Amino acid sequence: MDRQAVETLSMLLRPDGTPVRVLVVDDEPDAAYVVSTVLRYQGWRVRSAADGVDAVTKATEFRPDAVALDVLLPGIDGPEVARRIRAVLPEVRVLFLTACDAVDAGIPAGDACLTKPVGLEEIVARVRGMLRRVGAVTPRIGSASAADAGRPVVGDLVPAEEAGEGGRRASRRFPGIRVP
Q1: CATH fold of 3-143
Q2: Which of 105-109, 119-123, 146-150 has the highest average model confidence (pLDDT)?
Q3: Start and end of every Response regulatory domain (predicted)?
Q4: What are all long-range contacts of 134-137, with beta carbons under 8 Å and residues at least 24 apart?
Q5: Span 31-52, pLDDT tens digits
């Protein structure tokens, strides 16, 4: 199988054929940047927010299929952000990212949760699994949407020239990132 075919198989689309949408919410700019970049490399549309209020506003406007959500945020915490987003978008999937035990953090049952530090491949795999459960599909090879899938895949992650010091700092938090 050639590289384009492999990249196409890694891509997910909404049932209407448009790229899936993911909102990344983290008050640490380096972490939000790295996670957003890796998800964009999947061919997904990604927006980010730095706090709970901004997350709810952006979710209402952007209408994501999934949210990668830090539990400890300034203002409104992650579980409350998830409740408010689901009041508007009941089908949205939420991946909680937490530095503490999920039970202790009050994370609702039924949502995925990863404890930091976490590898970027694990974040991608969890988001991908959640998206498939809500109807995201892989395009057929040779389709119009597949032809435009020439994007780097997880193995390419973040090129060193794009990573910079922020990428190196984030790599300490996300061991799966590859930076010099």
Answers
A1: Rossmann fold (3.40.50)
A2: 119-123
A3: 21-131
A4: 134/65, 134/66, 134/91, 134/93, 135/14, 135/15, 136/12, 136/13, 136/14, 136/15, 136/20, 136/65, 137/12, 137/13, 137/14, 137/15
A5: 999 999 999 999 999 999 999 9
